[in-house]
Design goal:
It is a lipid-anchor; GPI-anchor. This is Monocopper oxidase-like protein SKU5. GO terms for molecular function: copper ion binding; oxidoreductase activity. This protein is mostly beta strands. It has helices spanning 21-24, 180-188, 340-347, 407-412, 524-528, 577-599; strands at 12-13, 34-46, 53-58, 67-70, 74-81, 89-92, 117-123, 129-135, 147-152, 166-175, 198-201, 222-225, 230-237, 244-248, 253-258, 261-268, 271-273, 278-284, 293-299, 311-318, 375-381, 385-387, 390-392, 398-400, 433-435, 439-442, 446-453, 459-463, 468-475, 493-494, 496-499, 503-510, 515-521, 532-538. It folds into three domains: 10-156 and 566-599, Cupredoxins -  blue copper proteins (Immunoglobulin-like, Sandwich); 166-334 and 341-347, Sandwich (Immunoglobulin-like), CATH 2.60.40.420; 367-538, Cupredoxins -  blue copper proteins (Immunoglobulin-like). The chain has six helices and 34 strands. The strands form eight sheets. It has a six-stranded mixed β-sheet, with no helix packed on it. Bound molecules: 2-acetamido-2-deoxy-beta-D-glucopyranose (11 copies). One 2-acetamido-2-deoxy-beta-D-glucopyranose is lined by residues 288, 290.
Length: 601
C-alpha cells in the first residue's frame, strides 16, 4: 500500500495497522490507527476561468483530496515535491501537540527541495472538525495545492446533531488567472494584486447565471442531492485575500461547527467567510424541485457593481429537479453603509457549551473566562509601509524576515543569533523595521492577544498549533476597558479570526503545547510582505520528551545546518523500491493480522 509513487488521480490509502505500524513510524502514538497518504505535488494545466493556466495539484487533483480521519489517528503523508521550487505543506488547524516539527512553515521546517520527498507524521490528537491543508511558501496557495482535512469524532463520542445523509466539502476562494509567480513579482515590485479574476468553487469557475457577465464554456461545480435529505457542507475560504459572503438560494444554512468547535446551531440565510476560515452547515433539501438552485460566494466589502466578476456560482441539483437555476442570484446582505451587520453576525457565532467535542467532557468545561491572563500582546496591523526601499507589511512595526535556519532547529542545535526573543507587547513608537523577533510565550501561561487593524481591508489572523477563544471584537481602538465587553462564557474556540478594518479582535489562548508556533495573517499578500510572528513556548523544566516530541529522524537541514543534510536522489532515479516493498509487505502482513483479530475475530 505504501508502494511507489502513483501518478493516477490521488489515491488515499488508509491502512489501519494497529500494533505493527508503530514499529515503522516512530513519533506517532502506538495503539491509535494510522492513515497513509501519498501526495505528489505538481503543476497541471486547468482552465477554471476559461483560460488555461498552471495550477498546483495534489496527485493530479485540483483541489487536492480530503483527508478523512478520526480523532487521535496517526497521519503519515509522504509529500513529493514535483514543483520547480521549494515546498512545504501546512495543516491549518491541526494542533500538532508537542510536535511543531510537522507544522510545515519556515519557522519549524526546512523547505522540501524540488524533486525531493518528505514524510510528515503527526497525530490529530484530541480534536475534531473541518480544516484544510495548503502550501505555505511564496504565495503558492494562489495556484492551488489545497485540500480538506476532516477529523471525525470517535464513535464513543456523541455528535450534537443527527447523522447527516452526506458530507460535502466545498473549497471557495478568490482567484487570479496570473500565476503565483507573477503575483509574487507584482508584490515584489511594490504593487497591489488588484481585483481578482473570479471566485472558484471546488476549483471550478462560475455557472453561467448571466450571459453578459460569465463567458460561455466554463466548467462549473454541481452538487447532487436527494430531496428531503440533510447534508453537512464543510465550506472553506481557501482564497488569497477576499472575504466572501456564502449563501444557497432558498436554503437555510444551519451553522453547526467551525474549525473544531460545535457552535450553537442557528440558521443563517448567508454567512461571511473570511480568508482561511472553515464552517460546517447542515443543509436540508426542503425546497421543491421546480429547478436547480444557486450556491453563491460573492466578494464582500467592495463596490459590488465593480466587482461582479468576483463571484463564485455552483449549482445545487436535486435528483428530481425539473429545470436549471434561473434568474438573479440571491441577494447579498445590503449593508454597504452599515459596518455592524457583519460584526454582529460574527459575534452571533457561539460555542454550544453543553456539546461534547473530541473528548466526552462538554466543550464548556474549560472555563476560559475565569482563568487569569498572564501575558498580553497587542499586535497592530497598518497599511503597507516602505522599509529599505521595499513595500512591506508589519505587525506592531516589525516586518518578519524568515531566517535561513528554522527557529526550532536553531534551538535544537543551539545556534545563537538566528532570532531575537524581544517582540514588543505593545506597538512601540519607532520606525518600522525588518526583524526576526519572536514572542516569548510562557509555558502553561494564558495569553491574551489583541489584533488591531488600522488598515482599510478585513484581515484574518491564524495561530498554528492552537485554537484560541475569540472573546471580543469591536470598532475603534482597543483599551483596557474593552475587556468589559468580552464574552467570557461561550466565545467560539477556533484557529482563524477576522479583524475588521478600523477594529480589533481579542483572543485568549492557553499555551500548553511546547514549540514554535506561527501567528500570521491569512491574506496571502499581507503575509507574503512580512506580516507574521512566532510564539516560542518552552518548558524550562523538562527535556525528557514528555512535553515535546523529539526531532524526527527524517528532519531536513538547511541554513546554518545545511552541512548535516544528506543528499536525496531526486525522484525518478530513486532506487528505493526494495525499501518500499519491504514496508508494503510489512504493512500488508500487519493489516492481515489486524483484520483477523479485529474485523473477523
Ligand atoms: C469519512 O470517514 C468516516 C468514518 O470513518 C466515514 O463514516 C465517512 O463515510 C467518510 N466520509 C467520506 C466523505 O468518505
Ligand atoms: C521518500 O519516499 C520514500 C518512499 O517513496 C520513503 O521511503 C522515504 O522515506 C521518503 N523520504 C523522506 C525523507 O520522507
Ligand atoms: C447543544 O448540544 C446539545 C448536546 O449535544 C444538543 O442536545 C443541543 O441540541 C445543542 N444545542 C444547540 C442550540 O445547538
Ligand atoms: C446581466 O448582468 C448585466 C450587467 O450587470 C445586467 O445589466 C443584466 O441585467 C443581467 N442580465 C440578467 C438576465 O440578469
Ligand atoms: C432552520 O431552518 C429549517 C428550515 O430550513 C427549520 O426546519 C429549522 O427548524 C431551523 N432551525 C433552527 C434552529 O432555527
Ligand atoms: C415550487 O417553488 C416555486 C418557487 O418557490 C413556486 O413558484 C412553485 O409554485 C412551487 N411548485 C410547487 C409544485 O410547489
Ligand atoms: C461603485 O462604483 C460605481 C462605478 O464606478 C460608482 O458609480 C458608484 O458610485 C460606486 N458605489 C459606491 C457606493 O461607491
Ligand atoms: C486570579 O487573580 C486574582 C487576583 O489577582 C486572584 O485572586 C485569583 O485567585 C486568581 N485566580 C486564579 C484561578 O488563579
Ligand atoms: C522568556 O520568558 C521566560 C518566562 O517564561 C523568562 O524566564 C525568560 O527570561 C524570558 N526570556 C527573555 C529573553 O525575555
Ligand atoms: C489608523 O490610525 C490613525 C492614527 O491613530 C487613525 O487616525 C486612523 O483613523 C486609523 N485608521 C483605521 C482604519 O483604523
Ligand atoms: C528523547 O528522544 C530521543 C529520540 O527518540 C532519544 O534519543 C532521547 O534519549 C530521548 N530523551 C529522553 C530524556 O528520553
Amino acid at each position: 500500500m505504501l508502494g511507489r509513487w502513483r501518478s493516477s488521480a490521488g489515491w488515499v490509502a488508509v491502512a489501519v495497522a494497529v500494533v505493527c505500524a508503530a514499529t515503522l513510524v516512530g513519533p506517532c502514538s502506538a495503539g491509535d490507527p494510522f492513515a497513509y497518504f501519498d501526495f505528489d505535488v505538481s503543476y497541471i494545466t486547468a482552465s477554471p476561468l476559461g483560460v488555461p493556466q498552471q495550477v498546483i495539484a495534489i496527485s493530479k487533483q485540483f483541489p487536492g483530496p480530503v483527508m478523512n480521519v478520526t480523532t487521535n489517528w496517526n497521519v503519515v503523508v509522504n509529500v513529493l515535491n514535483s514543483l520547480d521550487e521549494p515546498l512545504l505543506l501546512t495543516w491549518d488547524g491541526i494542533q500538532h501537540r508537542k510536535n511543531c516539527w510537522q507544522d510545515g512553515v519556515l519557522g519549524t521546517n526546512c523547505p522540501i527541495p524540488q524533486g525531493w520527498n518528505w514524510t510528515y507524521q503527526f497525530q490529530v490528537k484530541d480534536q475534531i472538525g473541518s480544516f484544510f491543508y495548503f502550501p505555505s511558501l511564496g504565495l503558492q496557495r494562489a495556484a492551488g495545492g489545497f485540500g480538506g482535512i476532516t477529523v471525525n469524532n470517535r464513535e464513543v463520542i456523541a455528535v450534537p446533531f443527527g447523522n447527516p445523509d452526506g458530507d460535502i466539502t466545498l473549497f471557495t476562494g478568490d482567484w487570479y488567472i496570473k500565476s503565483h509567480k507573477d503575483l509574487r513579482k507584482a508584490l515584489d515590485e511594490g504593487k497591489d494584486l488588484g481585483m481578482p479574476d473570479g471566485v472558484l468553487m471546488n476549483g471550478k469557475g462560475p455557472y453561467r447565471y448571466n450571459t453578459t457577465l460569465v463567458p460561455d464554456g466554463i466548467d462549473y461545480e454541481t452538487i447532487n442531492v436527494e430531496p428531503g435529505k440533510t447534508y453537512r457542507f464543510r465550506v472553506h475560504n481557501v482564497g488569497i485575500s477576499t472575504s466572501l459572503n456564502f449563501r444557497i438560494q432558498n436554503h437555510n444554512l444551519l451553522l453547526a461547527e467551525t474549525e473544531g468547535t460545535y457552535t450553537v446551531q442557528q440558521n443563517y440565510t448567508n454567512l461571511d467567510i473570511h480568508v482561511g476560515q472553515s464552517y460546517s452547515f447542515l443543509i436540508t433539501m426542503d425546497q421543491n424541485a421546480s429547478s436547480d438552485y444557486y450556491i453563491v460566494a460573492s466578494a464582500r466589502f467592495v463596490n459590488e457593481s465593480l466587482w461582479t466578476r468576483v463571484t463564485g456560482v455552483a449549482i445545487l441539483h436535486y435528483s428530481n429537479s425539473k429545470g436549471k437555476a434561473a434568474g438573479p442570484l440571491p441577494d447579498p446582505p445590503n449593508d454597504f453603509y452599515d459596518k455592524t451587520f457583519s460584526m454582529n453576525q460574527a459575534r452571533s457565532i457561539r460555542t454550544n457549551v453543553s456539546a461534547g467535542a473530541a473528548r466526552p467532557n462538554p466543550q464548556g468545561s474549560f472555563r476560559y473566562g475565569s482563568i487569569n491572563v498572564t501575558q498580553v500582546y497587542v499586535l497592530r496591523n497598518m497599511p503597507p509601509v516602505i522599509i529599505n526601499g521595499k513595500r512591506r507589511t508589519v505587525l506592531s512595526g516589525i516586518s518578519y524576515s524568515p531566517p535561513a535556519t528554522p527557529l526550532r532547529l536553531a534551538d535544537e542545535f543551539d545556534k545563537q543569533g538566528v532570532y531575537t526573543l524581544d517582540f514588543p507587547t505593545r506597538p512601540l513608537d519607532r520606525p518600522p523595521r525588518l526583524g526576526t523577533s519572536v514572542i516569548n510565550g510562557t509555558y502553561r501561561g494564558f495569553m491574551e492577544i489583541i489584533f488591531q487593524n488600522n488598515d482599510t481591508t478585513v484581515q484574518t489572523y491564524h495561530m498554528d498549533g492552537y485554537a484560541f477563544f475569540v472573546v471580543g471584537m469591536d470598532y475603534g481602538e482597543w483599551t483596557e476597558n474593552s475587556r468589559g465587553t468580552y464574552n467570557k462564557w461561550d466565545g467560539v474556540s477556533r484557529c482563524t479570526t477576522q479583524v475588521f478594518p478600523g477594529a480589533w479582535t481579542a483572543v485568549l489562548v492557553s499555551l500548553d503545547s511546547v514549540g514554535f508556533w506561527n501567528v500570521r495573517v491569512e491574506n496571502l499578500d499581507t503575509w507574503y510582505l512580512g506580516q507574521e510572528v512566532y510564539v516560542r513556548v518552552v518548558n524550562p523544566e523538562d527535556n525528557s520528551n514528555k512535553t515535546e516530541l523529539p526531532m524526527p529522524d527524517n528532519v531536513l537541514y538547511c541554513g546554518l545546518l545545511k552541512d548535516k543534510q544528506k543528499q536525496q536522489t531526486p525522484h525518478g532515479s530513486q532506487g528505493s523500491s526494495s525499501f518500499t516493498t519491504y514496508v508494503g509487505a510489512m504493512l500488508l502482513t500487519c493489516m492481515m493480522i489486524f483484520a483477523s483479530i479485529v474485523i473477523f475475530p
